[in-house]
Structures are given as C-alpha cells and as structure tokens.
Amino acid sequence: MAKVKVGINGYGTSGKRVADAVSKQDDMEVVGVTKTKPTFEAQTAADKGYSIYAPEGSMQAFKDAGIPVKGSIKDLYKASEIIVDCTPGDVGATYKAQYEAAEIKAIFQGGEDHSLTGISFNSTANYSESWGAQFSRVVSCNTTGLLRTLNPIDRVIKITNVNATLIRRGADPGDSKGGPINGLEPTVKLPTHHGPDVKSVMPWLNINTMAVKASTTLMHLHTVAVELQRESNTEEVLGIMRVSPRVKLIKSNSGLKGTGEIMELGKDLGRDRSDMYEIVVWEDGVKVVGKMLYYYQAVHQESDVVPENVDCIRSMCKMEENPSASIAKTNKALGISR
Ligand code: NAD
Prior knowledge:
Blueprint: E1 4-9, H1 13-23, E2 28-34, H2 40-47, E3 52-54, H3 59-65, E4 71-72, H4 73-79, E5 82-85, H5 91-102, E6 105-108, E7 120-121, H6 123-126, E8 135-138, H7 141-156, E9 159-169, E10 184-186, H8 194-199, E11 207-214, E12 220-228, H9 234-243, E13 247-250, H10 259-268, E14 279-282, E15 287-289, E16 292-299, H11 306-316, H12 323-334
Parallel strand pairs: 1-2, 1-5, 2-3, 3-4, 5-6, 6-8, 7-8, 9-11, 13-14
Antiparallel strand pairs: 9-12, 10-11, 12-16, 14-16, 15-16
Helix pairs in contact: 1-11, 11-12
The structure holds nicotinamide-adenine-dinucleotide.
Nicotinamide-adenine-dinucleotide binds next to helix 1.
C-alpha cells in the first residue's frame, strides 16, 4: 500500500516532533515541512533530510543562509494528501481557506478553536469521529491529558462531575519569552477554557477547571477530583488506569517524586528528545473515598499530543478503522508500551 503523504506546516515544538513520529510509521511519510525563517531548526530539518518549503518572500533569506528550499508553502500542498498544521495558536485558522482551495485535508492543533473544524480528536475517546473528515483538531496537551484518564473511567464507572486544577508550565524549555520566571500566576477567568475543551470531545461530561501558571518548563501537573455515579474503590480505578492507552502508572517511592524525575525517566527510556508521550499518574496518589476519586497526573506538554496526531491522520485518511489497532501501531513505532 502506498504511504500517505503528510506535509507539516510549522516546524516548531510540536511540528518537529510530529514530523519525526510520522517518519517512524510504515504507512505514512513526510513529504515536506515549512519554515518561515532560516533558523537552526530549518538547518536541522534539512540535515535530517526533510524537504523545506518556505513563504515566497523568504526564499532569498534561505538561499543566503545556504539552506535548500524545495518550494513555496503552496507547493507543499500539491505534494501532500494531508497537512498537519503546527503553526502557533490562531495562525492555523488563517491557513484554513488555503487548505480548502487546495482541496487537501488538514489537522489543526489545540491552539485553534473547536469551531474551526467542528470535530476535535483524541485517540482513546473519539477516534472514529474524524473518519474521512477533511478537517479535524487534535486538542491541547492539557485537554489530551484529562481525556486520557477521564474517558476510560467514564466508560466503566460513569462520572457525575469533575473538578480539576491545572498547574501549568510557564513556558516550553526552548522558549525564552514565556513566564513567569518567578512566582505563581492564577488564571482568573473561570472556569478556564480547558473544561469546555474536554467537552468538545466528551460533550456530556460535567467538568470545571482552574489553572495556575508556575515557573517551571518541564511538565504540567493536574490535581483531579472526580465524583463518580456509584461507589468505587482505589483498586477498581487503578485496574482501569493499568489498561488505559498511553497512561503510565508510577510510584513516588521508586524515586519518581516529581516532574524532574519523570523527565529523567524519559531520558533513561531513550525516547526521542526524552519525550514522555504517556500521561503519568502517581499510583500511590490515587484515592477513592465512596463516590469521590482523587488523583494527580503529569503531562509532558511538548509530546503527549504527538501520537494523537499520527492516529488522527489514520482516521482522516481512512487508513485503519479500528482505533485500538491504530493506537497499537503508533505506540510500537514510538516505543510506547501501551
Ligand atoms: P511553536 O512556536 O514552537 O512552533 C510554531 C512554528 O510555526 C514555528 O516554527 C514558527 O516559526 C512557525 N510559524 C509561525 N508563523 C507561521 C506561519 N504564518 N506559517 C507557517 N509557519 C509559521 O509552537 P508550538 O508550541 O509547536 O505550537 C503549535 C500548536 O500546537 C499551537 O496550536 C499550540 O497551541 C499547540 N500545542 C502546543 C503545545 C506545546 O506545549 N508546545 C502542546 C500541545 C499543543
């Protein structure tokens, strides 16, 4: 079977990871990535063998920097069956009309609104909703984190209500503009957008979220309080989490006390860029009291949505009808155990 041709528009934090993840699959290939400026990332992409496409007005700058450019961004559309748009939040929306005109499919990221596509994607929760779609949107890192754990629990026990507090990283490690560099910054507009974003995939779920930005770059940390429809116990919930795709249970007494150690684990596992694709839940921090479930989870913002983008390509391009089969295939290629 011919490999599906994938173009990546925006080769930054998410785009470069998605490009490498797509390259590792045997049923799809990267036909090119876009860069707006001849930065070190453009040079690295060229060194890796990716074809670079750039805006018409930037071609000379790339030539001056000695970085080969294969064509314009519009030329990439002609070479691609599907674009994964990894441009910054709200920039993706400005490209939608071009993708429509070029009659190609496109995946947007969590920085765009759900209304842009009308379909939002999470591999575990709603893989089939994007089947054959022209446009879909992989929800944000935090929303992916909440869906990965809440959806399997809701399927088995049913959830009445969720209250989650997100302690968010202030910036990505390579971002020198974000912050705060010291202090904690609450998001005062409540509920934060994360709850409604979860509802873009699980519309029936009652969920409210609060968020605090913290001076860390490594990961987000969620504290989640869930009211279940019936009484349960800690072992039942752990049993669900143990078989949930891309959820990793860890124990604090193994030395994994915080996000710093989890990132160290990513390095030890030999992952690309030491990424931690799974949502990491502290097993000894899961507690059920009657109908109330409490847990903590850590979210590696730079990478948890990467496998979801691969699965979303398979759903939109009608490559694999069975969600579990796509998840397993993506996982195997990326070294994710479940
Ligand atoms: P980024 O800033 O790291 O990368 C964006 C890339 O797009 C850069 O290479 C930039 O040069 C390029 N770009 C800027 N304007 C462009 C344009 N007009 N045309 C083409 N390329 C352009 O951003 P990111 O963190 O990778 O975020 C991309 C999307 O992924 C956003 O929607 C974001 O909300 C979402 N997302 C980010 C994270 C994260 O933590 N970084 C996690 C999940 C989802």
